[in-house]
Design a protein that fits this description.
Order of helices and strands: EHEHEHEHHEEHEEEHEEHEEHEHHH
CATH topology of the largest domain: Rossmann fold
Number of helices: 12
Number of strands: 14
Number of domains: 2
Strand order of the largest sheet: 3-2-1-4-5-7
Mean pLDDT: 94
CATH superfamily of the largest domain: NAD(P)-binding Rossmann-like Domain
Helix content: 40-55%
Strand content: 5-15%
Radius of gyration: 19 Å
CATH architecture of the largest domain: 3-Layer(aba) Sandwich
């Protein structure tokens, strides 16, 4: 990778990924793509080049790619699961029509493309324990439907046109840097904010509901390491299961209580979030990612909890 465009650089993943890529490849080689309604914060804008890059405007994307001589695109434009259910037409426009524009620009300009998929690409008929890399995908949400389409369309462009497309299926991502943006797994971020502020947490997910999760530093590494992987080793490309830990709300609550004994939690289950969560896997089998490009997570529940509480306490002055 020589010159990189991050589409959606101001989002939950994009803001941190842009900074990590700049650290790795040099600030001037990583363009922060954004839409006018969500401009980059000062530190992101001042640290390197930025440009308006709306996935719904193929001509605009092509112009940015040509101007900055882009060879790699990280396409992070999407609505998250809960928001997508409320705005399904917009979710499709951004997630799929936007992806088509990205892939066409990549085909015409010789770019590699990373477009993340998700555990949301699985559905209730998928095996829930150690969900295989290759298995049935019949999601019941527009978010999931769009992610399955993302995988298939990216594979199509690789096989038909030779576009170097790659992706991982992200589990829930937990971060202290960027607030959550409407995902089903967001409770696992919100609970840390409540703990750091000394507040009781009201959990929208029912006790016993396990989902795969990952600390953001591992998620960023996964995205970057896959794009650096030897293409001759990749059999799956779109998209690899990756995971680091699997837990239910009571597990993370107990882990926080080990460090903050006065922390309290109660349940007020959100029916939409709960229905989505129950349709997703409890745990993933990521052996294909481990074998094909050496994936290894560095954080588990205990180490993530310790780091999250320390970092949030510093940020919030708690």
């Amino acid at each position: 990778m020589k010159n990189i465009l991050v589409i959606g650089s101001t989002g939950q993943i994009g803001s941190e990924l842009t900074a990590a890529l700049r650290d790795q490849y040099g600030s001037q080689h990583v363009v922060a793509g954004y839409i006018p309604s969500a401009p980059p914060r000062d530190e992101l804008r001042e640290a390197g080049p930025s440009a308006v890059a709306d996935v719904t405007d193929g001509g605009q994307l092509a112009a940015v790619v040509k101007e900055y001589k882009i060879d790699t695109i990280y396409n992070l434009a999407a609505l998250l699961s809960v928001v997508a259910e409320q705005k399904p037409k917009l979710a499709w426009k951004i997630g799929i029509d936007g992806l088509w524009n990205v892939l066409e620009v990549a085909r015409e300009n010789g770019c590699a493309v990373f477009t993340p998929s998700s555990i949301g690409s699985f559905g209730p008929s998928t095996p829930h324990e150690l969900t295989p890399q290759d298995t049935v995908q019949r999601p019941l949400t527009i978010y999931g439907v769009s992610k399955v389409t993302t995988e298939l369309l990216s594979d199509y462009y690789f096989h038909k046109y030779g576009v170097d497309t790659r992706a991982v299926r992200f589990p829930g991502l937990i971060s202290y840097v960027t607030p959550p943006g409407g995902g089903t797994t967001d409770y696992a971020v919100d609970i840390f904010y409540a703990a750091a502020r000394g507040e009781k947490f009201v959990c929208p997910i029912a006790e016993g509901t396990r989902m795969d999760m990952m600390y953001m530093p591992d998620g960023l590494r996964a995205a970057m390491e896959l794009m650096e992987a030897d293409p001759s080793r990749l059999k799956h490309r779109n998209a690899f299961n990756v995971t680091a830990m699997s837990f239910a709300p009571e597990n993370i609550y107990r882990e926080i209580r080990r460090r903050m004994p006065d922390f309290t939690m109660e349940y007020q289950v959100d029916p939409l979030k709960q229905a989505i969560a129950e349709s997703w896997p409890d745990s993933l089998d990521d052996s294909a990612a481990r074998e094909e490009w050496g994936w290894r997570p560095q954080y588990g529940l205990a180490s993530m909890t310790r780091d999250m509480l320390e970092k949030l306490s510093e940020r919030l002055g708690a």
